[in-house]
Design goal:
Blueprint (H helix, E strand, L loop, with lengths): L2 H22 L15 E5 L2 E5 L5 E5 L7 E6 L7 E5 L2 E5 L5 E5 L7 E6 L7 E5 L2 E5 L5 E5 L7 E6 L7 E5 L2 E5 L5 E4 L8 H27 L2
Antiparallel strand pairs: 1-2, 2-3, 3-4, 5-6, 6-7, 7-8, 9-10, 10-11, 11-12, 13-14, 14-15
Length: 223
């Protein structure tokens, strides 16, 4: 083994040891207070988006971890419990005010561009493929189409046994934290292509057959 190989090995061991120290001995590097109660955070591109209770959404620059700086904020109608940021949009689970959609393309001036009330208490939201999945308290999981940001539309829902307070969607499955009822795994079983139209056609044929049968019986009983 040459000296270069030995040196590389030593450097690797030192780097591994340093990484282990960081994991085993967490150290606070910085902080910033928020006006209300920080309930959730989503991090994208050096910016932290904080769901801050009665103070709505706060946008904080964390590019310098030792000195986070608030860049902008927007109050929401309800109580901001959860937030996820996708494609320059922040989706805020806003308690009794449902879900709010906020354009954060300019972090200094967030602007609400859409909203939808939910029947329960929106605690958390996950967005995948144009659909927002909202953990909605005693109203379970709500599935909302956000392809038109100005007019989000609920396209499905399922009640859960307890109180849905968090949700994560991976691989077509929604994993819902349901308070006293633990974890619920929720999927969607699509109807086979053409099943509905086929059933409708069978029903039509059946109705026509019954109608013709009655007409034939009437014809035979006439003098």
């Amino acid at each position: 083994m040459n000296k270069a190989s030995i040196l590389v090995g030593i450097l690797f061991l030192l780097a591994s040891a340093a990484h282990a120290v960081r994991l085993e001995n967490p150290v606070e590097l910085g902080s910033i207070d928020t006006p209300s109660n920080a309930k959730a955070v989503s991090l994208v591109g050096g910016l932290a988006y904080v769901a801050d209770g009665f103070s709505g959404l706060r946008v904080i620059d964390v590019s310098d971890p030792a000195a986070p700086v608030e860049l902008g904020s927007i109050d929401t109608l309800g109580f901001a419990y959860g937030v996820t940021v996708v494609g320059g949009l922040a989706y805020v689970a806003d308690g009794l005010s449902g879900m709010r959609v906020i354009d954060v393309s300019d972090p200094a001036f967030p602007v609400e561009v859409g909203s939808i009330d939910t029947p329960g208490y929106a605690y958390a939201v996950s967005v995948v493929g144009g659909l927002a999945y909202v953990a909605d308290g005693f109203s379970g999981l709500r599935v909302i189409d956000v392809s038109d940001l100005a007019v989000p539309v609920e396209v499905g829902s399922i009640d859960t046994p307890n109180f849905a307070n968090d949700v994560s969607v991976v691989g077509g499955l929604a994993y819902v934290a349901d308070f006293g009822s633990g974890l619920r795994v929720i999927g969607s079983v699509p109807e086979p292509a053409g099943l509905v139209s086929a059933l409708a056609a069978l029903a039509t044929v059946g109705a026509l057959g019954r109608s013709r049968g009655r007409a034939g019986r009437r014809a035979r009983t006439q003098p």
